[in-house]
Amino acid sequence: MTQHAPGEVVARIRSLQPSLLPAEQAVAAVFLEHTDRMVELSSAQVAELAGASRATVVRTCQSLGFTGYQQLRVLLARDAGYAPAARPPAAVGPAGTVADTFAQVASAVSSMTALLDPAAVADAVRAIAAARRMLVVGNGLSAPLAQDAAARLGGIGRPAEAPMDAIGQQIAAALLEPGDVLLIISGSGANSSTVRVAQAAVDAGATLLVVTAFARSPLAAMATSVLVVGMGDLSFRAEVTVATRIPQTILVEGLVAAVAEELGPRAAAAKALALEVIGRNLDE
C-alpha cells in the first residue's frame, strides 16, 4: 500500500480534482465537503450525494492514487486527528482581517507542503546551481514572484533572467540549450502564455522546473521536476480567482536558501558583495 503522510490526503484531492472526469470531480467535491463525516458514509451514500454510481466513487479514489474507497475513508479518519485546532475569533475591523490572514497561513502550513516531493526539490536545487543559463518565468499574478526569484538568485551569485513580455519570454526560452534551466511559477499550471514558453524550452532541450499548486496540469505534465505547493483550502476555481501566491512565495525563499547552500563559497562571496553595495546606498 502506498504511504500517504498525515495531512496529504485532502491536499492531494484538491490538487488533482481539476484533472478528473466531470463525474469524478463531483465525487471529489463530496470528499472535500464532507471530510469530517467520511468515516460514517458508505460508498453508496457518497455516490448518492455526488449524483454518481458506486463504481464512479471507487474509480475516483483510484484516480486520486488510492486503492479504493476504504483506504481513502481510513486515511481521512486518521487525518482528522491531525487537523489544526480551530483559530480563535480575530479582532474585528481591518486589524482583525490582517491578523486572521496570518493565522490562516499558520494553520495551513502542513497542507501547503503535503505534496512537495523532497527528491524533486533536491533535483531542482542541483539543476539551478549547475545551470549554464537560468530563465525564470511567471505571468499574471505569478509575474512579480518570478521577478523576485530572479533578483534573489542573482544576489547569491546565480544570475537569472526574468523577461516580462510574453513574446520575449518565448524567444528567450527558444534560445535555451541543454544544460540551461527554465523555472516557471504558475499557481494554476495552465496559463496558456506560460505553456507556450515551457514548450519552447522543452523543444530546445532545456531543463524545465515548475512551481504550481496542481499536480496534474499542462505545465506539470511537461516538467522535468514539479514542485507542488498550495493552500489546502483553495479549489482550482478559488486559486484562479483569489490566486494567493503565499505558498509559492515561501517555496521560492526556501529554494534560494537551498541553492545558496549548494553554491557554498560562491554564494557567500556574492552576498558579501551585495551587502557592500547596499551599505553604500543607505543614508545615515
Distance between the termini: 62 Å
Low-confidence stretches: 234-242
Order of helices and strands: HHHHHHHHEHHEHEHEHHH
Number of helices: 15
- What is the oligomeric state here? single chain
Main sheet: strand order: 1-2-3-4
CATH class of the largest domain: Alpha Beta
The portion of residues forming beta strands comes to 5-15%
Tell me which CATH architecture of the largest domain applies here: 3-Layer(aba) Sandwich
Q: Give me the count of strands.
A: 4
Overall average residue pLDDT: 87
**Gross geometry:** globular
The amount of helix comes to: 55-70%
CATH topology of the largest domain: Rossmann fold
CATH superfamily of the largest domain: Glucose-6-phosphate isomerase like protein, domain 1
Main β sheet profile: 4 strands, parallel
- How many discrete structural domains? 2
Radius of gyration: 21 Å
